[in-house]
Write a sequence for this structure.
């Protein structure tokens, strides 16, 4: 599985999680090898037998970079033409801090109600979050 960050190099994806469903005939994943680019931070891939999928997590994914994960799996039956149909869609969850896809910006904000003990700060945090990013095979 190859993932490419199609965003500017000054941005990064945070808390990236990729779920890759395995076919029903999969017994185990023998190995999951990661080829990571510099600046990725902590990355891990492991097979979950209970949900029958490989979960690949990355703490930080730099923009413009590529990440690769290769897995060797054990099957209890020989591979047939039906095997490809059993692979489900790959799900991906991530967030991109200080990035706004829609380019909507807050220019002026007025606090109408003064609350005791609350001091507003002059700062707006933009965060892009994926709710359901799916790649069908």
């Amino acid at each position: 599985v190859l993932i490419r960050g199609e965003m500017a190099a000054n941005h990064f994806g945070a808390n990236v999680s990729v779920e890759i469903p395995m076919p029903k005939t999969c017994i185990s994943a023998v190995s999951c090898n990661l080829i990571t680019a510099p600046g990725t931070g902590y990355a891990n891939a492991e097979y979950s037998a209970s949900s029958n999928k490989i979960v690949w997590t990355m703490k930080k994914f730099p923009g413009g970079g590529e990440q690769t994960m290769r897995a060797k799996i054990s099957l209890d039956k020989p591979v047939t033409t039906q095997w490809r149909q059993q692979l489900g869609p790959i799900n991906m969850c991530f967030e991109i801090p200080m990035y706004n896809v829609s380019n909507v910006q807050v220019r002026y904000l007025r606090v109408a109600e003064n609350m005791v003990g609350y001091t507003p700060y002059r700062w707006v945090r933009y965060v892009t979050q994926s709710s359901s990013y799916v790649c069908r095979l």
Q: What stands out?
A: The helical segments are 82-86. The CA atoms of residues 23 and 84 lie 8 Å apart. The mean pLDDT is 85.
